[in-house]
Amino acid sequence: MRLYVATSNPGKLRDFAHAAEGYLLATGAGPADAIDIEPLSGLASVPAPPEDEPTFAGNARAKAAYYSRLAPGLLVVADDSGLEVICLNGAPGVRSARYAEDQRFPPAPGSTVDERNNAALLRALDGIPEPCRRAQYHCVLALARDGEVLATADGTLDGTILRAPRGSLGFGYDPLFFIPELQHTMAELDPATRLSLSHRGRALRRLLERIGEIS
Fold it and tell me: Which pTM value belongs to this model?
């Protein structure tokens, strides 16, 4: 089976490929059951669909349907994911990638988009006590073919938001996302451990299970 993922983000593609490998190992599948994860080609040449749904599921379904119409006959996977902080009523949520922009948080000289988003989140949580800094990474995947959504699945990872970033690995909010059980942020974990915990990976494993049920 070959799945075409509607993203050019290398971090997401690594998560998905690792999850597919883990799924095959866990199910005892043989070589004939291989799952190929490929980026959907030509993304740079087509306008992106509006991500204006209020939920991860809504955006994932809309993107999967949109991109699958551009790749007739192919199984296309689209995701929408982000960070949900409990005391911020689920923000940044679907606006995770644009959080600092929405907050009109000024960028520091030479800062990246991720660094600006992290700084904006810290400002929003300034003075908030530890018990109220609980958060989760949340990912929803949608599978579509020829404009029809065939299945969806979601995955989450629980943690808390630190008061200062730690670690240089990962991307997005990983330097602030602390996992109490491991006593590390996502940005401090080695790639294999980080990928094994990934909310995207968990969502893909569940999606593959649902594909099997459909088949």
Answer: 0.89
Angle (CA) 160 96 23, round 5°: 70
Is there a contact between 87 and 132 (Cβ–Cβ < 8 Å)? yes
Residue found by looking up tokens 């003075």 in the block? 127
* Segment 9-40, tens digit of pLDDT: 887 888 888 888 878 777 666 555 678 889 89
Burial class (CB in 10 A: 0-12, 13-18, 19+), 183: exposed
**Do residues 148 and 56 lie in contact, with contact meaning Cβ atoms separated by under 8 Å?**
no
How far apart are the C-alpha atoms of 20 and 110, rounded to whole Å?
37
Residue-number span of the structural domain to which 46 is assigned: 2-214
Check which CATH number belongs to the domain holding 41 and give it.
3.90.950.10
Residues annotated catalytic, as ranges: 80
In total, how many domains does the chain have? 1
| Phi, psi at 148, each rounded to 5° | -105, 125
Model confidence over 39-69: pLDDT tens digits? 898 888 889 888 889 999 999 999 999 999 9
The DSSP symbol for 49 reads: P
